[in-house]
Automatic annotation (TrEMBL):
GO terms for molecular function: chloride channel activity. Keywords: CBS domain, Chloride, Chloride channel, Ion channel, Ion transport, Membrane, Transmembrane, Transmembrane helix, Transport. PANTHER family: CHLORIDE CHANNEL PROTEIN CLC-E (PTHR43427:SF6). The chain crosses the membrane at residues 6-29, 41-61, 81-100, 107-128, 155-179, 186-203. Pfam families: CBS, Voltage_CLC. Belongs to the chloride channel (TC 2.A.49) family. It is found in: Membrane. InterPro entries: CBS_dom (IPR000644), CBS_dom_sf (IPR046342), Cl-channel_core (IPR014743), ClC (IPR001807), ClC-type_chloride_channel (IPR050368). The lineage of its organism: Eukaryota, Viridiplantae, Streptophyta, Embryophyta, Tracheophyta. This is CBS domain-containing protein.
Amino acid sequence: MSELPLYLLLGVFCGVVSITLSRCTALTMDVVERLQKTTGLPMAVSPALGGLIVGLLALVYPEVLYWGFENVDILLESRPFTSGLSAPVLVQLIGVKILATSLCRAFGLVGGYYAPSLFIGAATGMAYGKFMRFTFTGSEALFHVPFLDVASPQAYGLVGMAATLAGVCKVPLTSVLLLFELTQDYRIVLPLLGAVGLSSWIASSQRFSTSSKGKLDSLEEKTSTIEEAKNVPTQTQQLTSVDSVDATAELCKLESSLCVYDVRDDNVLENLTVAETMKTRYISVSLKTPVVEALNLMLVEKQPFVMITERNKSLLGLLTVKDFQDFCKNVKSTRMQPEVDECLVSNVCGAVRCKIWSVTPQMPLTAAEKIMDSHGVDQVPVVSEHVNHQDGGILIGFVDRECITIARRALSAKEFFSFTSEIRREER
């Protein structure tokens, strides 16, 4: 097909438009959230204010409102006795629709991405198609290419709808099948696949934005750690869980409007203490425990660390699977390989130094998270109040990243349902 490159270029434009919509929505939500915090704007008033702003935009551009799919038909010029819109007006509608959609999502109005992405894609494709026909066809064409047969703007509008839907909602196969069901034309499949593929690829590349580049080093370090610990199931499972939490956080950071809760909102943890979120089931060993026995306990209990205590349960330190691995490397490098049965936990502590950071039950959960961040650990022991400076405290449990994530999610969901119930009571 001679005009296939034109459809591929349309896919590039649709990918850029998809990124613009996602970024604009996330930026608008941040601005509105800051506005609510600084001005004390009630959340119940936010939808009304958002509706007012969108209504003012609709006075100038009424097409941005949702009329079912009638406005999409107007863009595609598929209804009889309707005059088509010019390319400059279509470009303006793209920008205004992106702004209106972002405002609706930010102020809490009901709506999604499906219908807006179809509208924006149709406007993008139609504007692009009209520009291409003006450029390559007609008596006043800017460039005369004999072998290039440019299709109607409606064809580009349909492909633009599918490409934008794929870029925004990350559903390339659904977009291709949906448009093919609408057209029942095999000739459109090849340009459709090219445009949708390019749009999805460009939109997905936003995960390598500047905001996420700072985490590449930590992700590479975790990957190497997983590779080293591939023979230890407990450590691998724990690291996989941590990576999945980080991936969720990164996705929500890139597109916060698609998250039910904000995984990095520290405000929801201000009133929580360590005692409300800590786990009380843990593995404890003494300094005289054989290393093999400690590793077997970790394997059975599916925990990637072990607590080291005295007879009275006073905390002496904490060792992770990685600490044991570092100890093995040190032993190999020095060529001093003791008997397996003679290797004790005290030998490991002497070589790699046990971690001795701890928290208390009444400490705020945010403080425990800061301690983990500052020392680069994923869990800290919870001890009773220190009796004296020489006593590490009686071990009573531990708190880890998973505890904090569960607490944050549960509190966010609880606040959401409490707010919904309050709104319903006011309506009654």
